[in-house]
Each structure stands twice: as structure tokens, then as C-alpha cells.
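Handout, page 2. Input:
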Amino acid sequence: MKRGLALMAMILVVLAGFRVWQHLRLPVSSSLSPLTIAVSLTPLSAPIIVAKEQGLFKKHGIDMTLKPVHGGVKSFQTLVAGEADLATTSETVAMFNSFEREDFNILTSFVESDNDVKLWSIHRAIGDSLSEALRHGRVGVVASSASEYFFDSLLQLHGMPTETIEKVYYPPEALPSALLDNDVDAIAIWEPTATSSSTVRVSPCSH
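Output:
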């Protein structure tokens, strides 16, 4: 008998809580203030783009505008410049910026990848020894991004002295041209630029 009463009381509490939640939550038909997301032009941003195209933001009463930008660094810069309310960026970009500022928050993580950033070259054959292939070479990277973190990690993994390689900083959209124009010997870049570059005779390096 006591167990039955306790169960009944628990059900009533749950129902009462559900009614309160329904009363307090924003009705789907109510419009929120307009919001803008700075979206990095990468396949990893697909969930945000698909949600916009499928009308999911509008369905939930959100007037959302997407602001496409090249890379997470630019996305973060757009956010802190006040040109967007939210931004898609890698944890690497958040990490680098956390060394200099504390006026931002990571709200959620919606995607991950272990094969997004790649090292490409058309000038040097990458064989068994990455250190020999890139010795005294110039490598294009995007500063304070997954590109730079990836390349620095490669140097450590292969025991390559940093003084034997010159890092050259570029915006992400400029890296393929820098490689094709022989300004650098290799580039560290993420998708879709990495795959797109393969259509212009860029060969992948080991990584």
C-alpha cells in the first residue's frame, strides 16, 4: 500500500514538473531576436548549414542568419568584432585565443574528425622520412589554428628540429596558390581545401 502511494506521488510530481516546464518554455510560434552565426566554410560545419536549409531554426522560433567565412580563425574574429552572435570554430582556435582573452564561452561541441587537416606538397617527395623531405623547407600554415597545431605536432612526432623548417603564415584561402606558385614547399590545410587542392596536381604527404 505504501509503495503504491509513493509511486502515485512520484507520478504526480513528474506530471506537475512537466506542466511547469510547458508553461515556462518559449512557445515554438514565438520569435526570438535575430541571431547570426559566423560559419567556417568546411564540411565540419554541415550540421549548422543543413539545419538552416531545412528550416529547423525557423521551426523553433529562431531568426538565424549564417555568415560564411574562411576558417575558424576568421570565424572567431568575426565573433569578437561583434559581427556575429555565435561562431563555429575548432577547439584549437579556442585554445590559442584563451591565452589572450577570457570574454568568450564554448557553448557546445557538435562534430569531431581525426582526418580533416592534411599536409600537401608538389615539390618534395614524401617517403619514409618526413624530416628529410622537409629539411630546410618552407611550410605554409594558418596561424593559431588547427593547421599550425597539426604541423607542430608532426614536427614533434617525427623529431624534427624547428630551426630546420620555416613556417610561413597565410590565410587559409591563400595556401593553395602559395604552394602552386612555389612560395612554399608544403602546406598544412583542412578540408575542403585539402581535397580541392588535389584537383590541381597537389599530392598528399604522409601525416
